TrEMBL record:
Highest taxon listed in the record's lineage: Eukaryota
SUPFAM superfamilies in the record: Periplasmic binding protein-like II
Any Pfam family hit: SBP_bac_6
Origin organism lineage: Eukaryota, Fungi, Dikarya, Ascomycota, Pezizomycotina
Protein name per the record: Periplasmic binding protein-like II
Signal peptide: 1-17
Alphabetic keyword roster: Signal
Amino acid sequence: MAAIRRLLFITLAGSLGVTSTGFRANVPVDTRSLDEIYAAAQNESGPLIVASGGDAQSQGDTIRNAWAQRFPRIPLNLTVDLSKYHDSRIDRAFYEKNENTDVALLQTLHDFPYWKEQNRLMYYKPATFNDIYNGEKDLDGAYYPILTFNFGRFIYDSTKLNASLIPKSYADLTDPRYKDKLVLTLPNDDDAILYLFHTIVSKYGFRWLDGLIANNPMWVRGTGTPTFVLQQEHNNATSKLALTITSAAAPANATYFHVKEPQAPEQYMSWTQTAAIFASTKRPNSAQLFISWLLSDEFQSTLQSQGRPIVRRSLDQGELYLSNTTQVDGFRVFMNDRRFVERWRLQFETSLGTAQGPSALTFVP
Ligand SMILES: *[C@@H]1O[C@H](CO)[C@@H](O)[C@H](O)[C@H]1NC(C)=O
Ligand SMILES: *[C@@H]1O[C@H](CO)[C@@H](O)[C@H](O)[C@H]1NC(C)=O
Ligand SMILES: *[C@@H]1O[C@H](CO)[C@@H](O)[C@H](O)[C@H]1NC(C)=O
Ligand SMILES: *[C@@H]1O[C@H](CO)[C@@H](O)[C@H](O)[C@H]1NC(C)=O
Ligand SMILES: *[C@@H]1O[C@H](CO)[C@@H](O)[C@H](O)[C@H]1NC(C)=O
Ligand SMILES: *[C@@H]1O[C@H](CO)[C@@H](O)[C@H](O)[C@H]1NC(C)=O
């Protein structure tokens, strides 16, 4: 019996690639300061390779610039691409045994439990680990929320749309007064937009989708694209394009953009972009420095000053979970049920066709 149990354990351990010390590494919280980790990281050969989810290279600039200023001796190679292609390449490198990504920071939240099951993630707890909301992090230290994003707020060009014409709810978007005015990301091309559209259609039915399509929206790829198009068309008097719900934020450099949150019980979508260090990293201290810095007071307080909900309890003081208009953990649950995701994706593809047009990354700088 003992022999069978031992054999079973060896087989299981072999298939999961776990060590004989157990299934979960019980790692302590790192008590080193950022400067101490920085000193250790300088002993490693760079650059640190980070796969960052997004749909415009410029979305990586804030982190790239802040890192270069704070840790000039550790070169950072942070590439922005759609999370769904980053994860695919990361898996391909794993299959072909040539892994080179040190850290992933992605929207594809189903990847993290999957990679953890395969024992491909490094267990690591940065100094602020116990202050990160339990609902968003892996308790063993395999992955962590870094920053919050959302889609579904009304972003509009106020010179083209009078304040009285701003929708009060998603139901309003089927009103003929929005004909030719909308620019929207295809929900079958981005799972976060899919989640938003699934929330709306679950409430209003497919009649809502039919009404929306009747208003002739301009359908695009990428979530940066709608506000980019609205900016391009701003000075075009012939263009009626004025409104989107599928961009995360209004461009900071254009004062004519305004943002309005839908009112409860309407729900927009939000999530915490999540990061992990790969166990295969050859630059463990550099990778740990990156995670520790992103979750430090230093970095998180700059996000706080932008008015965003924060993944750290002490800085956020409940905000992340207090909203009546968005449920931050809904998307994590949705993403982990790939059969459900696929059924909804095809519902939208049935009406809208496969995603066409230039890739988001080639369209928006
Ligand atoms: C740098 O690496 C060498 C060789 O691996 C090691 O002996 C030394 O302790 C390291 N220094 C730091 C600051 O980590
Ligand atoms: C950055 O990393 C990517 C992905 O590994 C690689 O294709 C690219 O060549 C690297 N760029 C530099 C400048 O090292
Ligand atoms: C907004 O409303 C004002 C006052 O009714 C009107 O003069 C103006 O033309 C409207 N602008 C647009 C873009 O519809
Ligand atoms: C202005 O908008 C109209 C209507 O959408 C479009 O046909 C035209 O190509 C646009 N002009 C420019 C310069 O983009
Ligand atoms: C804002 O930035 C975008 C993208 O860099 C650019 O195309 C646009 O002209 C800028 N607008 C203003 C008002 O500066
Ligand atoms: C959410 O709704 C409750 C009950 O109406 C209200 O007390 C609370 O202030 C609302 N929260 C926010 C963040 O608006």
